[in-house]
Amino acid sequence: MSEPGIVIIGAGEAGARAALGLRMRQYRGPIALIGAEPGLPYERPPLSKAVMAAPTLAAPPVTLDEAAIARNEIDYRAGIQVAAIDRAGRVVVLADGQRLPYQRLLIAAGATPRRLAVPGAEAVSYLRSAEDARLLRARLQPGTRLAIIGGGLIGLEIAACAIGLGCQVTIIEQAAAILMRAVPPALAAMIEARHRAAGVQFRLGAAIARIEARGNGHAVILAAGEVLPCDVILAGIGVVPETNLAAAAGLALENGIRVDASLATGDPDIFAAGDCCSFPHPLYEGRRMRLESWRNAQDQGNQAAANLLGAAAPFAAVPWFWSDQYEFCLQIAGLPQFGAAIIAREIGPGAKFLFHLDADGRLVAASALGPLGAIARDIKIAELLIAQRAHPAPEILAAPDARLKSLLRQAAA
Amino acid sequence: MPNWIEACGADDIEPEDVRAFNHGHETYAIYRTEDGKFFATDGLCTHEQVDLADGLVMGTVIECPMHNGRFDFTTGKALSAPACVDLKTYPVKVENGRVFIGLG
Question: Among A218, A190, A228, which Cα is nearest to A354's?
Answer without folding.
Answer: A190
